[in-house]
Amino acid sequence: MRYGPGLLEEVLRRTDIVQLVGKRVKLTRRGQAFWGCCPFHKEKSPSFKVENGRRTFKCFGCGKGGDAFRWLMEIEGLSFPESVERLAGEAGVELPKWSLDDEAREQRRRSLYDIVEEACRFFEAQLGAAAGRAARDYLAGRGLDEAAIKKFRLGFAPSGHDALIDHLRGKNVSLDDAVAAGLARPADEERGARDFFFNRVTFPIADARGRLVAFGARALDPDAKPKYINTGETALFSKGHLLYNFAAARAAAMKAQSIVVAEGYLDVIALVRAGFEHAVAPLGTALTEDQLQILWRTAPEPILAFDGDEAGVRAAQRAARLSLPMLRAGYSLRFAFLPKGEDPDSLLKGQGKAAMQRLLNEAEPLAKVLWRAETEGRDFSTPERRAGLERSLAETVALIGDSKVADYYRRDFEQQVFDTFKRRQAAPRRERGPREEGRRFSAPPVEAVSPLLRSNPVARGGRAAVRRLKELEIARLLFFWPEIADRQGEVLAQLRFQDALLDRLRRELLNLAASGFRLENQGLENHLVRAGLAELASRLKGAERGGDPRDAAVPGDADAEAQFLSAAAELRILAELEPERQRAAERFRTEDSEESWAEFIRLKASGGD
User: Fold this and answer.
1) In principle, which of 134, 205, 226, 283 could form an S-S bond with 214, CB 3.0–4.6 Å?
2) Using one digit for the tens of pLDDT, what is the confidence trace for 13-33?
3) Is CATH 3.90.980.10 the right assignment for the domain spanning 100-237?
């Protein structure tokens, strides 16, 4: 149901957001606002602010914020209508009355919930009865004890064609209602009405609120096709809109800010029993857009734990491409590929929880999976094939809906293409005689680079030393005036620092700017400390030299951006010199001529180490 803005405003007005948030976060009052440590990311000093006056929450560390509806959506994974219903009920705001047709449909749905619940109790009883012996043996063979069977409410649909229909009829449930609940098939010209499930182990499926809505079922007959089936589409159940075990996993996933997606019911059960309570699975099909949105409402980077065989890799690649139009800053996927022949259940039994945890910790980012999908096992020995790869990668990037995210993927792929195909390895030098060795140092200087580059003062110094100084200069400017990254993000994104720590700062600033984080010096320093980069922050302040950080040579605010642009331009000049120097070095090593050696020496003198 759609709610008008007036009604939503009334719900928010009656909701004490400080009290609501305070149920989850310890808050301390400072003036008119309340502060605490953000529940969405780990931090030691409070940067999470809640205000009743504005009726909002906001974290200045990770950028998450919003009103009371958004709080419930972020912290509990509720949908917007569920958030409205929850807060309206607590605030005493009456939601619009439904029509008689609305009420009739809702009453029908409530009745179907009761019918599915009754079917679950029937299947549970049958599993414990004499007829369930084979089903119990199968579950025991999969390592499931009585506690696990009870926790997940596993059951058995007996052989025959009407055992469940007869049971439901005894509970005053009509055949039409059993069909509507997806538990029976109606009669047709060839045969009468019959149970939907028979001679199968059953796995009850709940909706996001924990209400049973359907079943998955595994055949006990090894010749039965298909091995697994689900309840068909009903008023309660659409398999592309739900995830197995999600209602139980949601709280653990929100707390861990992580959720693990396995391929099947038994994998989820094994993961939960091993302590991975935030495990879920799609319902017998590939992941859908709706399921991805459910996952992202729960955790920013769900981990897809797929088998390492060809089918698992294909499933991962389908999920990767499906996600592209929906990617946004801070939200992506990671992939944990199990060893071939293993699934989470077998891995846990054979190698234990630690092995599974290592796989999850080492899960591959989405960009790597996309790159492998385009390159693994393929021959790029010709220019045409390499051009084809670049075209395919460009088509992949074009699928990404968020322009900022797409830009980062484009640059990442361009860098990988360069590193893989365009950065030639230097050919090994052949042995030289004494006369040739002496000739190295006697070549007369000649012009070897373009006049514009050669005349630049940066090119005349030691290239590596100058580059290190320029990188440090840029990094310190950004540290003291991080707002430059907001205004000059395109320039910053095009730079590449050779110093790994300084490049980490560059990437952190770009990510913060893209996420809407308000960039200022103290906030950035706090962020770096929380990110484990306290040593870098100290280095940039000048504290590593033992002096007062305020004595460091930092320009005035008005000059900072101009100095940044100048230093960035000089750093780019050094980068432009590098390919020219490499080409000369390669020519010298391969041709071994007077001309090539002279060119190499002169270029090295112009901008070398």
Assistant:
1) 205
2) 889 999 999 998 999 988 878
3) yes
